[in-house]
Sequence to fold (270 residues):
Amino acid sequence: MPELPEVETTRRGVEPHLAGRRIAALNVRDPRLRWPVAPDIADRAEGQRITAVDRRAKYLLIRLETGSLMLHLGMSGSLRIVPAETPLRTHDHLDLILDDGHRLRFHDPRRFGSLHWVAHGTEHPLLARLGPEPLEEGFDGAWLRRALAGRRAAVKAALMDASVVVGVGNIYASEALFRAGIHPTRRAGRISRQRLDRLADAVKSVLSEAIAAGGTTLRDFYGGDGQPGYFRQSLSVYGRAGEPCPGCGEPVRQRVIGQRSSYYCPRCQR
DNA sequence: CTAAGGACCTGTCGGC
DNA sequence: TGCCGACAGGTCCTTA
Fold:
């Protein structure tokens, strides 16, 4: 489920319930995630006060006094805040037990998610080579020109490369290219500066609109299922093969680029 | 350095 | 109804 808007929506949903609380325990029910969860991670975290919940790319960083818990939702992960006696479902792999009795529960059928410990003053290797945040200073057409210069790969694949910009997943890569009028197979290094400006703007607008929509669907992290709705109706091309392009009516096409399904309008995107 | 393909996992869906 | 292959929102790692 998680693209950047959902990770950010999740962050905003859980932070108020976590910040200021103390960790009573960390239950690792199944350590077999993308990387095995370190056996000593519970000992490191237990007893510490949570100061904030941040995000870098699609990693959530639960800030503690001596370091951070770094959590990735992978392809199928989700978080809920649940009361103490909430029955477990299959694939509920982790519980962060808070001093108010609530639990932050991590659910992940495919187990592509991960949990790492990052000590204060150290940088985790998984974060070391990441490109800029799409919604912060440093990401614009000028950056794209530098990052994509000389690249022969399809622009859609390049846009999903985390060293170019973080957080643009398969859905929003298609959506941003549609908004910018750029064909997904166009070679990344052969796009004019003006069109790269448009592309950077499209990435920003599509992600921030999705975050805004996600915020409205996320009402109550207690009790509810905690899953923000997925804003299919607001997507222009993703998952809409054969449906009319919202710009010109031409049927939306689907093809595989870099092993991922891609959607585009053959008329509006060049 | 870049690009391409495989790998990790489970669940769901469509076709026969 | 049952089985089988294709596919799913991520991304690291290996190989060329």
Observations:
- Helices of chain A lie at 4-18, 41-45, 125-128, 141-148, 155-159, 170-180, 193-217.
